[in-house]
Specification:
The chain is an alpha/beta fold. Helix content is 28%, strand content 19%. It has 2 domains: 373 residues, TIM Barrel; 135 residues, no CATH class.
């Protein structure tokens, strides 16, 4: 083993040196035309625990990934292993964070992935959220009414040292942090195109503020936030309306001061941005639209959440939708670790494909010394040669590569736009306790926001006010980004006046609108007389209906879809449709161990509306199998072989506890 690693090291070093000589200074990248991922092989998150990283181990890990059908790795730097024992006394030797020695190992890794035909992305920091030991108190995350508080960060490469989380509402704080982090990564970003990754929002969100925020609030809304901040999360009035005003301004800060600067900095470094905006206190569609590669997450977020991410991608013209996949599959923190069953993973992957994801990122692979596979990461399925999945990983990866490649062709099919209930979620505030998780309390996250069941046959997409205003109406269709729509579906309790104005304008131009209920104006200072006039104008339009069945002219894409989920891509040649096995529908956290167990053949007769024709198709779902079909412009249907038969899973019913570790304790009253 040592001899083979030495030979590989020498060989790779030769190729890397030759390759490096050919690398010129990268010019400005056109991210609209660049191929961000050279192929559709799944990637994996690659956990680097703080330790002395050695080149033979880097090569050994990468060679295993290549041999098992992975297309690349996203390096995620975390704490040393002794943190799991809460050991703050014994120091684990390591290359110091962002030191020249650390940069050398990271750069060697990138050069090695290039020589092996793999990709390499980098988490833009150590652990999450962004922060380090050098963030000054003045640039740390802060709360209202507590000037002495800021959020600490400790589970990093520098453990047991503690630092601060950066103020995510201040581009100054971000750029100061990004300068030192970017300098450490610069040499590694050379070569093939890499992404810089930002994980889901884990900044403490309640009462979040920044310098000048309350002054901006008073200027924008004409009253003082501090008069109401003690009860900002009350379910009573007027606090619900004050909270809406607060969330609207907060959303603008998050997007303008953090997400946009992150993508800007990524481009300055010659990289693209790959981001999970999940959990952020902002307009979720607008935030996802600011990044180059929007990323979803499962199973801590249900697969249906990916509809939002994929909608944002289509609205903003982004081609790839990734997902951090298989996280905490059977529960938190690590149920059935290293005993995962491939059939269960396929169940989840298929659900994600049917909700708009087209590139899988495994979660994930721990960095291991050369020749061994003993290091584990608690919250992920185990990617390595010693886990229960090892034998099936190559074939499973080939399956996901095949599906991903098909679901990247063309653009997302679109016809019906559904208005996102952002205003409703901001006013709702806290979720009911039974829906909360110890890491998720707010309706603003949109974890439980679902597309209307009555629209399933139309394969709808979400839209928000920003993109309604950006869209152009031409020949009866609404165009924005890579998608277009024949109608708009609105079913919200609240809608801000800017969005209502745009809906009224579209209706006045003859665009069909289904208005399921009459919305009210959100916010503390109201009523605005203009709001009522806009509602009155809207109600007088003959093309505004109050029930979906009244929109008879809008024909469904597929009839008979009640029992399964699907996703459709429109290409120059026709349509490509992925149908997930019915068992993949309505998946929630946590997955049952062996939930995928299936011995039933299921057949469905559907009709696909395309090019003015109703095309009858029989869908035959074998156990564990999903389907892809293509329809050309003449209506010819062709099924693509995507068969992959996993080992038959073993089912073990979950023993329900009075309170799971991830559940919020309920009041005994």
């Amino acid at each position: 083993m040592k001899k083979s690693i030495l030979l590989l090291l020498i060989f790779t070093g030769f190729i890397v040196n030759s390759f490096a000589q050919k690398i010129a200074k990268r010019e400005q990248i056109d991210l609209q035309t660049s191929q961000l991922y050279k192929d559709s092989r799944p990637w994996t998150r690659w956990w680097w625990f703080a330790s002395v990283i050695e080149k033979p181990a880097i090569l050994d890990n990468l060679q295993w990934l290549k041999n098992n059908g992975f297309g690349g790795a996203e390096i995620a730097w975390v704490y040393p292993l002794n943190r799991m024992q809460k050991d703050t006394i014994h120091y684990t030797p390591r290359q110091e964070w962002l030191s020249p020695e650390w940069t050398e190992m990271v750069t060697f890794t990138k050069q090695s992935t290039d020589s092996m035909g793999l990709g390499c992305d980098f988490t833009f920091g150590s652990l999450w959220p962004f922060g380090d030991m050098k963030v000054p108190f003045s640039e740390a995350s802060m709360k209202m009414k507590d000037p002495n508080w800021c959020q600490e960060i400790s589970r990093t490469w520098d453990y047991p040292k503690k630092g601060y989380v950066i103020d995510h509402l201040s581009r100054k704080a971000f750029f100061n942090y990004a300068e030192r982090t970017g300098n450490g990564l610069k040499p590694a970003i050379k070569g093939s195109l890499s992404g810089l990754f930002c994980d889901s929002w884990e900044v403490e969100t309640k009462f979040l503020t920044t310098s000048g925020f309350e002054a901006d609030f008073s200027k924008k809304y004409g009253y003082s936030l501090s008069d109401y901040s003690d009860s900002l999360y009350s379910r009573n009035e007027p606090y619900r309306q004050v909270r809406y005003d607060y969330m609207k301004l907060l959303s603008n800060y998050v997007i303008e001061e953090f997400y946009k600067p992150f993508t800007q900095k990524s481009h300055e470094l010659g990289a693209y941005s790959r981001v999970q905006c999940s959990g952020a206190p902002c307009d979720i569609i607008s935030s996802y639209a600011t990044v180059d590669v929007p990323e979803s997450e499962a199973l801590l977020y249900e697969p249906s959440f990916s509809n939002i991410v994929a909608s944002a991608a289509g609205l903003s013209g982004k081609k790839v939708v990734t997902s951090e996949t298989f996280t905490c599959l059977y529960g938190w923190p690590s149920d059935h670790h290293s005993q995962e069953q491939t059939a269960d993973l396929k169940l989840l992957a298929d659900a994600l494909f049917a909700n708009g994801v087209n590139h899988i990122i495994w979660h994930g692979k721990p960095f291991n010394p050369a020749g061994v596979d003993t290091v584990k990461f608690y919250a992920s399925v185990h990617v390595g040669k010693s886990g229960s999945l090892a034998q099936e990983i190559p074939a499973f990866n080939r399956y996901m590569e095949t599906v991903s490649s098909q679901m990247k062709k063309g653009v997302t099919y679109s016809d019906v736009a559904v208005y996102m209930p952002t205003e409703d979620s901001w006013i709702a505030g806290e979720l009911p306790v039974e829906k909360q998780l110890i890491w998720a309390w707010g309706a603003y996250e949109q974890r439980s926001t679902y597309l209307p069941e009555e629209l399933k046959a139309w394969r709808p997409l979400w839209i928000n006010g920003d993109f309604l205003r950006k869209a152009t109406l031409k020949n009866g269709r609404l165009y924005v980004g890579d998608v277009s729509f024949s109608s708009l579906y609105v079913d919200v309790k609240y809608m801000d006046i800017e969005s209502l104005q745009r809906v009224t304008e579209l209706a006045a131009e003859g665009f069909p609108v289904c208005l399921k209920q009459i919305p009210s104006e959100p916010g503390f200072h109201k009523p605005n007389p203009e709001y009522g006039l806009l509602i009155s104008k809207l109600q007088k339009r003959g093309n505004v209906k109050y029930a979906w069945y009244a929109m008879a002219a809008i024909k469904p894409l597929i009839s008979g879809t009640e029992k399964f989920d699907y996703w459709c891509r429109s290409t120059e040649d026709g349509l490509t449709i992925f149908f997930a096995n019915p068992k993949s529908q309505h998946l929630t956290f946590p997955l049952g161990y062996g939930q995928s167990l299936n011995n039933k053949m299921e057949n469905f007769d559907v009709k696909i509306q395309y090019q003015g024709k109703k095309i009858p198709v029989k869908l035959a779902f074998s156990p564990y199998q999903s389907l892809i079909l293509k329809i050309d412009k003449n209506g010819k249907v062709t099924f693509i072989d995507i068969s992959f038969i996993p080992k038959t899973p073993v089912y073990q019913p979950r023993i329900k506890k009075d309170r799971e570790l991830w559940e919020v304790e309920r009041s005994k009253n």
